[in-house]
């Protein structure tokens, strides 16, 4: 599934706003998700090619924000139950298993 240019822009803004709201550093996120800051930056800019990676980061940030007793900023395109989106591997998202390699 492809996003429109407007959806891409909105999703980038929503991911970054939730990053700020979480209070976490990219280093903490990279460590928790067993990756590096480069990959986190690619996901935040939607230049990572895996469809699941932005969903994994979204779910991770949502969880961390809720753990702090706060409410995440809603996502306009990354919405609904990802288990019901045929184009996503929900098992990877459930396991927080980011794609291997650079892209």
Can you give a write-up of this model?
The protein is mainly alpha-helical and 103 residues long. 52% of the residues lie in helices and 0% in strands. The protein has one domain (5-94). The chain has helices at 5-22, 26-32, 37-44, 52-67, 90-94. α1 (5-22) runs parallel beside α4. The model has no long low-confidence stretch (mean pLDDT 94).
Please give a quick description of this structure:
The chain contains five helices and no strands. With 103 residues, it is mainly α.
SSE blueprint:
Elements: H1 5-22, H2 26-32, H3 37-44, H4 52-67, H5 90-94
Helix pairs in contact: 1-4, 2-3
Protein name: DUF2316 family protein
InterPro entries: DUF2316 (IPR018757)
Pfam families: DUF2316
Q: Can you give keywords for this protein?
A:
globular; 5 helices; single chain; 103 residues; mainly alpha
Global mean pLDDT: 94
Helix content: 40-55%
Per DSSP, the total helix count is 5
Question: What is the H-and-E element order?
Answer: HHHHH
Major sheet size, sense and barrel closure: none
Q: How large is the share of residues in beta strands? A: under 5%
Whole-angstrom Rg:
13 Å
Protein name: DUF2316 family protein
Pfam families: DUF2316
């Amino acid at each position: 599934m492809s996003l429109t240019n407007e959806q891409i822009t909105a999703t980038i803004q929503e991911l970054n706003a939730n990053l700020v709201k979480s209070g976490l550093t990219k280093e903490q996120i990279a460590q928790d998700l067993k990756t590096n800051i480069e990959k986190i930056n690619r996901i935040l800019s939607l230049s990572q090619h895996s469809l699941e990676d932005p969903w994994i980061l979204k779910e991770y940030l949502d969880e961390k924000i809720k753990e702090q007793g706060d409410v995440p900023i809603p996502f306009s395109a990354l919405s609904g139950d990802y288990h019901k989106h045929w184009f996503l591997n929900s098992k990877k998202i459930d396991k927080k298993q980011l794609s291997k390699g650079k892209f």
